[in-house]
Amino acid sequence: MSKTNLALCHPEQLPPSLDGSRGSYRTFDPQQLIHANNDFEAAQQWLAEYATHYFSKHTLRQYEKEITRFFYWSVNQAGKAVSDLSKQDYVLYEQFLMNPQPADIWCGPRRPRHLRNGQINPKWRPFVGPLNLSSIQTAFAAIQSMLNYWVQAKYLAANPLSLKRGVFSKKQQQNYKIERIIETDHWQVIWQAIENMPKDSRKNMANYQRARYLIALFYHTGARISELERHTHGDIYCRNTKTNQWWLRVIGKRSKQRDIPIDQSLLVIIQNFRQFHQLPPYPTPDDPTPLLPKLYINHDKGITARRANQILKQILTEAATRLAKQSPHQAEKLRKASAHWFRHSYATDLLEADVSIKTVKDNLGHQDIKTTYLYVHKDKEQQHQETQGKLKSIY
How far is residue 170's CA from residue 190's CA, in Å, rounded to a whole number? Predict the structure, then answer.
């Protein structure tokens, strides 16, 4: 791995057969629109431009991680430059993501990729373990975006992924249903875990208040963590004072603005949180309080999406521990939950409560209603009950 670590940081040290300067699918068009002599430079151009105009910070971090992994695999496992990869190579990469082997080289605990001196961390590994379908889709979405950019920039002659099926096949997409949700039985132990948090000091009380606030915020808005990361309480506003209708305005994917209704139960928790920090109960348009706040309110800066997810994971892990004796399978599922599961739960619960699919689509900010339909599925308990006793007796 040390050779590849050095190569990805300093691509000029790779031979031309691996750095893409002689890539088989390069155009070598004199009218190439980006200043890139090899694949690494072309990838950096793509990331820099999209960071400025298209990606949220969260998406940028995710895509950068996926492209880094992809470059490592291309050079080490496939033995090719990215611009040499064919359609079949991408099929092999998909299979590799399902089971990165040899595991001792490719997988390990989460660690920062760089040391404080800027050198590659020798203990860092690209993967923790095999990726699930959703993570593989994210990986290929990043690669697809980069390759499309390369083609448009006349760096690459064609995008091999345009011919690929598999994780992007329509049949698989239609059959895939969102199962990563917080189940009804989970909520009681989640709130028990929060209510049992220590409250014997100002710091502990602040930690408890933030935990209640974050759990409620993620579930009751269904917003993406990247959207919450870049907004403040000033984006919470009242549209109709007579009916006390409060909304959260966010800028989502593709820089599209949308308004999310805030229900009364979330509004109460927001008020309690604000009053604890000696803020007025209702936000004002110029309120700088971050939606993802530090333990003690800092109006200039909140916590990162990654830190918010860590806080939620700590709560969910504690709840899973409480659930383990009663239901080990449900406890294991809860232990795997993350911030994005609250978004899935928000959509699923609204649809099961007969909220119109268009309203749910608008609340989530989906561009295509087909994405929202992935959340339409029967509750497992309901599915089981409706099936019992309905078949013919054959014994």
Answer: 36
